[in-house]
Amino acid sequence: MKKKCLFLLLILGLPQTGVFGQDTLSGRPLVEFDSHWYFRSAINDSIAGTFIFDTGASHLIFDSLYLARSGYTPGEMGTSLFSGVGTAREKGGYVAEPTTIRFDTLSYTFNGAPVLQVRPVLGRRADGIVGWPLLAGRVAMFDYETGQVTVFAPDSPPDLTGYTALPLAYRRYRYHVRAEAEPGNGKRIRGKFLLDLGSSGAISFTSGTARKYKLNRITPSVESYARNAGVGGEGRSTVFRATAVTIGGFRVEELICSHSHNTSGSMATKKYLGLLGNRLLRHFSVIIDFKTRTLYLKPNGEFGKRLDLPHTGMGLTDRTDICEGFIVNLILVERNAERAGVRPGDIITHVEDRPVTEMTRQEIAEILRNKGATVGLTVRRGEEIFEIALPLVDQGI
Fold first, then answer.
1. CA-to-CA distance for 192 and 172, rounded, in angstroms?
2. Do the Cβ atoms of 300 and 283 come closer than 8 Å?
3. How high is the pLDDT of residue 84?
4. CA-to-CA separations, 125 to 32, 192, 294, in angstroms, rounded
5. CATH number for region 2-144
6. Are strands 256-260 and 203-205 parallel, antiparallel or unpaired?
7. pLDDT for 54-85, tens place per residue?
């Protein structure tokens, strides 16, 4: 039945409590990593799904299309109103009954679950998002080199040899860690950042931090516009290469960072300096002890390796679940994709005359990484279909 009530939830606000399930998991690979951590799972022990693990969330969140197609029919539904990294609150549904998510023998029962448009942000692989309560009281290792997560049984703790321990501050149901950034304008930004394994970026500074430390004066930089920046819709930011970020005594140089232009949503908050995400953490083997609230870091084989902005000048979201292509979700302003005529919302249906529905993600990525080449793209915009020759170039950052 339809429950006549409104659940007002802020992604960076109210807690989602629940009952912790099994207590017998012992060190097994559970997931894969591709900019985000994808957890293959089951809902209520019967419905398969893949959920992105996010320490910046305390809820289980369903993608609306996944839920509609899953075969799961909740007994009670309500509505929810969410704020996230976008500029607006997103209205959605709410599964108003206990819902259990299970990974192998590890499970957690949430009291309910918001239903939002997750795939427009994260693509067809994401059936939703699961927050940190899944690992509450646990110790988990995130191996960015192998793309595996190991959750340790209480009687089999990890070997912490070579790791540096950092305390995590727990506030408003989120975890924060201290770091220092040298953005490149002669200033140093020290303080707490939201530990956000749901972010694919390195450091994403809030708009308040950007104003305080005059990050708009950093050059070179490039403005980006995201049609679906996250829950809450669109967002604008400036991308630049920071001189360095230091965390736990480890100095990682020349990281691609960003600062938000948003005046509302979680990227306009004053509660933390910014988000600390996977593009920084991938330089380490990461262990999080959710019971003692401790982050452990040890440099891995990727430590210090330089990463560049995409040579395409745009960001693509795989929506081959609803159309025959990848949707342009992000544009670097006045860079090669925009200059070639690409616009946010365009659908890329073919790469080099090959339908993207017949290509693997790896094949597409390999072609688009070929700096110096010019790639032929077939673009659908509404009822119009046209060809674009896109030069793959360095973005000057």
1. 14
2. yes
3. 64
4. 12, 31, 30
5. 2.40.70.10
6. parallel
7. 999 999 999 999 999 999 999 999 998 876 66
